[in-house]
Every structure is written in structure tokens, then in C-alpha cells.
Amino acid sequence: MALYIQETGAVGAQPILFLHPGLVSGWMWQELAKEFADYHCLMPDLPGHGNSSQVEWISFQDTANQVAEVLRERAPGKRAHVVGYSLGAYTTVHLLAAAPELVDHAIICGAAVRPLPGSALVMNRLIVRFIKSKFLWNGLARMWGIPPEEHDAFIRIGLSVSQSSYGRINDELANVQLPVGLAGANCPTLIVAGEKEPKAVVESIGDLMAALPNTQGYLAPQGDHYWGFRYPEMFVGMVQAWVKDGPLPQELIPVTAQS
Predict the structure, then answer these.
(1) Among 71, 80, 143, 159, which residue's Cβ finds the most Cβ atoms within 10 Å?
(2) Contact, 133 vs 99, CB < 8 A?
(3) pLDDT tens for residues 106-129?
(4) Residue in 58, 111, 112 with CA at minimum distance from that of residue 88
(5) What does the domain layout of the chain look like in residue ranges?
(6) At what angle do helices 87-98 and 60-74 cross, to 10 degrees?
(7) pTM over the 0.90 mark
(8) Which CATH number applies to 5-255: 3.40.50.1820, 3.40.50.300, 3.30.70.120, 3.90.700.10?
């Protein structure tokens, strides 16, 4: 079964591939995609999520391979800008290792290449256990700062997430590491995390900067893992600047490879 893909913008123009966080779907990118009407926007639902909930999650590498096929089929002969957030960011890292020739610019937001702390893994195990509970999704909507008018869609999509797929994702996160092949990805790559994210995520900015040959790293001030939801204007401005080679929002805090 193929991944569900939502497409907007100008088919045949430069493609932008938006890869969503875990527990949501390509739905989360709809408002952002309106800012890129001159581009060909591709917003897949990743395995186990949304309209791809019947596609079982196998691994980050398998998902990166599926995403690469989406680009080859929907934007043949073109290099895409790729925007990955959280689960989508991990997928972007593996896409850069597996098929760097498909990527023009990349954004990796909120990915760790070091083992996550036990508290994060325990939280994910609780989510797996109660993933079909509306109570859980109401709480996540408040914690992530989902706008009230979007709560119903967030909960509906959340309840569709495959329990088995999310369990496998959590197992893979417990042993996450850098994939082989990143040195061959020479596209400009922006690596970002919230300033208040777990240490493993913040320190992974430096790891990724050392592994990839053409990077910049930044922290979102006072941001946690969900800062892109909480500060959408800064997130949108960051994406616009990166894909158009413009100046990044001044609020972002630069990180050096040695940090």
C-alpha cells in the first residue's frame, strides 16, 4: 500500500516535501503550504499515521526509501526542498544518507542522533499504551499548543495512529544513531532544536553538523520540542528564509559544530 500524499501549489514547479512529526499527519502543514503557492508542495502521511495508518512502520530507513520514491514519482528529475520535524526530521536524516541527489535544501528540526533520555522513552511508552484514548489526545493538544479551532482535527487524526507502528517507532528511538552515508549529502542543511529540548536533541545539532558537509545549526530561544507549534511565525519565517536563501529570523541562536 502506497503512502497517502496531499499535493498543493504549482505542479511542475520546484518541489517542497514536508515531513510531519509523530502522532499527527500531513494535515499539520496545510497552513504553512499556503505560503509556498509557487512551489509544488508534497505532504505525505508517514507510515502508521493519518491516511497512511494501514501502512505499517518498519524503520526510519524504510520510510526514507518510501519518501524517496514519492519524490521520484511526483517530481521526476527535480531536487526537492525537504522540511522534516521530529519524526519527519529523523526521516530527513535517513533520506540525506540514502538519496542525497533528490534534495536541494533540507531542514532537520528536533532530531536526536544520541539515545533519548529515559523520561522521553517512558512518555512514548505511555502514549503507545493509551493511543486510542481521547483523554490522551486532549492532553497532548493542550501540551503542544494546538490552536483550539484545530483540536477536533488533531484528535481525530491522533486516534487513527497505528498502535503497533508507534510502538516500533519508540523502539527505534531507544537505539537511534547516525546513519551511514551522510558525508555524501552536500545540500545546504539547517539543523534546529528548541533551546529547552532534551540534552540529547540539543547536542545532536553538533553531531549532525560534524557528519554533514554543508550545515548551519540554531536553537529556538526558550523553545521546547513543540516550539514550531507555539511560535508559528518564527517557524514559517525560518522555512521561507532557508528555501529562498534569505536571512534567517534574528531570534534564532547560532550553534557551532563544537557546541
Answers:
(1) 80
(2) no
(3) 999 999 998 877 777 788 788 889
(4) 111
(5) 5-255
(6) 70
(7) yes
(8) 3.40.50.1820
Contacts of 141 (CB under 8 A, 6+ apart): 151, 154, 155
**Residue 44 CA from chain centroid, whole number:** 11
- List pLDDT tens digits, range 149-197: 888 888 988 899 999 999 999 888 888 889 999 999 999 999 999 999 9
Residues ≥6 apart with Cβ < 8 Å to 158:
23, 24, 131, 136, 137, 140
For every residue of the chain, DSSP letters joined together read: -PPPEEEEE-TTS-EEEEEPPTTS-GGGGHHHHGGGTTSEEEEEPPTTSGGGTTS----HHHHHHHHHHHHHHHSTT--EEEEEETHHHHHHHHHHHH-GGGEEEEEEES--SSPPPHHHHHHHHHHHHTTT-HHHHHHHHHHHT--GGGHHHHHHHHHTS-HHHHHHHHHHHTT--PPTTGGG--S-EEEEEETTS-HHHHHHHHHHHHHSSSEEEEEETT--TTHHHH-HHHHHHHHHHHHTT-PPPTTSEEE-TT-
